[in-house]
Amino acid sequence: MPRDFTPKVVTANALIEGDVVYLTVDDQWTRHLSEAEVLTDEADADYRLLQAQARADEIVGAYLADMRPGPDGPEPTHFREDFRRTGPSNLFHGKQADGLGHA
């Protein structure tokens, strides 16, 4: 029996900076998970992923990440995605240095 489709976002890493990025409704890349487009239809999610993967001059490693609704937008359902959105694992670099750890 097939599993129900869970909401997803398209995520990748910015090609130059390496930051985690998320695809928005208006086809922009954002570093803020709260601004990501939440995909609730499997066919739409697959199509958006293909569109993102074609943008190899901007990003690398695009994939669909499972999410759940939260009070401030999508929230990761897996530890890996929660960890990715907080920035590098060594302190005082990137989002952590900017005080944006859970943006």
UniProtKB/TrEMBL annotation:
Domain of life: Bacteria
UniProt-listed Pfam families: DUF2849
InterPro entries cross-referenced by the UniProt entry: DUF2849
Segments for region (Disordered): 66-103
Biased composition (Basic and acidic residues): 75-85
This protein's name: Sulfite reductase
